Task: structure prediction
Amino acid sequence: MIKKIKIFLVSCLIASVLGGQEIPPLNLSEDGSIQVLSLRRENGTRIRYPDALPSLLQLINESSRVSFDPFPLFIESLTDERLFEHPILYINCDELPNFEFSNEENQALRRYMELGGFVYLDAGIKASFLGADLGHSYAAWEERPEVRQWFDQVLPGQSFNPLPRNHEIFRTFYKGLPDNEYLRLEESQKRLPDTVLTFVEQEKWPQGTYSLVGLKVRDRLACLASPICAMGWGRDEFGAWLPPISFRIRESAENFDETLQMASFTGKTFEVTREDGLKDIIYQIPGQRPLWVQEPTGRWRIFKYYSGEEISNYAHSFYARLGMNVFLYALLN
Amino acid sequence: MGKNLFLFCGLVALGFSAVAQEQSNQFPLPLGAGGPSAAPIAGAPVLTRSSTSSTMEDAARDLQSPAESERVGAAKLLGKYPGAQATHLLIGVLDDPSELVRRAAIVSLVEHINTGSFYSIGQPIYEKIFSKIGDVDVEVRRAVTALIPRLAFRLVQSFSQQTVINGRVVYRNTPGGLRSDLEALARKALEDPDAVVRQNMLKHHTILRIQILPNVLARLLDDNDKGVVLEAIDQARRYGSHIEIQQKFSALTKHPDAGVRSKLSRVSQMLSRSDSFYRSILRTLTDDPADEVATLAIIDLARVGEKVSPPMLLRIEEFLSQSKGFYGNAENLFFSLPVLGSKASGIYKALLDHPSSRMRAEAWAKFLLPVRASEDSSVWLNGLKDRDSEVREVILMTMRGRIQEATEADLQALLANKNAEVRSFGAELLLVADEELAKEQFFNFLIDENNLVRSTTLRVLARRKMDNWIMLHIRSLDDDEVQIQQAALDGLLSDSGEGTSALLEYVRKFPSHPISEAARRELLRKGIHP
Result:
């Protein structure tokens, strides 16, 4: 692992030479750890998960031989000269007050990616029906419209594409879903309700994958967008995960294809892009959680919501493992 | 013939649609409303959505179906229709022989409760749901125990009772509390085979107004599930005087998990206020092999007034010095240091060179706070050489306004700093420098490459009204930088005598200069017509 990081640092240097431009040397902490940059606007909205990124970086330090500075370096603008001294830029899109970036910022971001920087847009995917609700994630398979408009200015003519389920990013460090051993559960304990576990394993996060879209610069994945993952990274002083996370599960039952077509409904519908590019139609009554979904296959399923400590712990473990994979992939590629 | 039949069917369908609309007072939506991909397929029969009442009727019928899958489907669907009718239907299947139906019903009831539509339901309904805490299916038990905070207020409600005694109507309040049979179920759930159920019950038992027997809590403190043990330690705050609990606490000081021992320290600190036994637990934990546990215990002991020995202070210092950043245990410990009083200053000093910029910044803020620290300028001048702007900013904020007199060495050190905000601070200090020294040094600041430093110097000159300050300000009105022009304008305006006159003269002489427009506005505001 250390060797690979050295290769990365050398490749940064080569990139700067090949690019014919002088860039500042990579800025490591005094103890040699890597510091992650985080964009946080001065007049940003409320910070929802302040413990998230430090907890995740600490987890990476504890679980691997990589050394991250657990405390990210916050910058207010992408024109901050320190941008080019750090290999990873983390942006929680839900914490941005808006998506207004100056031309200078967009140029700096483009140059950053061209020179080998990696941009992680957490909450860069957000299904339209979630609206202003920041506490939910939904596995849509396209970047949110604001991100699309922003990157049209950063890299005109290029677009985000869904990452395939067999992408290396899902196997960089952890592979598959957390098992009982990882969760430190006794064999006799049930980790998730049967219905929940089946859906998670087969549809929600098959083999530990998730809905990610990425944008390549010079054939390298330089920008990644995901539904909000930071909510799954934080820990309190006793090592307990926070905040609690619940699951939205699609369930079917006898005759639901007919029942849900006919059942009383007075709300709105929203289209959400699926992994295969087709659209799910979500049925929702404003102010309530989504009711059910009409899938393009003609299948109708109902949304059910499950909560509890075992569910929350499982979700946190998944998001933390995914987060580790993303940050380590960013370092190594 | 065929065409006539089609027309007839269409009219009948329209008629049914109109009836449904009347019944439900809502719009019948064509299928897939809102989505282009959901547009009705040409030639397919056009269906309309049914009304809420007819959806309910269908679900009620399906709940009675002999087919388990139909009952499950109906129970799931009813979760989407919060209201008394759907709730009562779901309550009716909580004793269904199928565990799948019971699970679906309880999950749907949770949906109703979460939508806030449940409060009009009577106490017996709440009691019925709570009684499922004894269900044979673990998923149902988990769901019910997680719901306790939402159910409890009705389960333990007291009522006013009207009785007639010797012909007189007497009103009495019945005591609030859990029904005795339900209390027995709740006590049983504390020792449920499932750890999630045990943990939920521990967490919520107080709002059900039941007390845990000391021997039961002692067993839970010995649980094989970490989550249950942590919760049991937390709840032990209420039962600390029992000898069984104290014995378990002693045993838990050797628990292999550092998180459990940390929790033990925190709860022992709370209990030690009323029971000295728990100080002995804290003393034991000060020798814990894990630094985060030991340091927490040391601080907790200090909180209850015990002396902290030099080796203990050193352990805190080492733990914080070796921490990777300013978060989690290190952050909590740092903010607890004030309980050590003046002894904490040595720890703050040791952290001034910490690799984490945040830690350095916080340490500087605390270290410089005592008045004495500001007397020795070499201390904070050294800190202003920090590579991180956050650290420098904290030092500047802490020192601003607290320096009585600036020396030549101070000003030169600040002037030599490579960061503009520090040099600007040096310019600010010209205000508290000796007059001769200020005269000697101001020019060095005035020719600085940075606008902020120069503009600050101009403002200081105006404030002190140093020799030739008006001339310098008038010349600065012609500077290329707006920031300098503005500082010069502000300085001249601040002096209603010579400064304002000089400005007036300048405006009349150079009416088209960019700053003249702003100057005219300001002069007019002061009642002076340029």
Notes: Confidence is low (pLDDT under 50) at residues 1-22, 186-190 of chain A. Chain A has two domains: 2-243+309-332, 247-306. Chain A touches chain B through 59 residues (CB under 8 Å). Residues 2-243+309-332 of chain A form a domain with the Rossmann fold fold (CATH 3.40.50.12140).
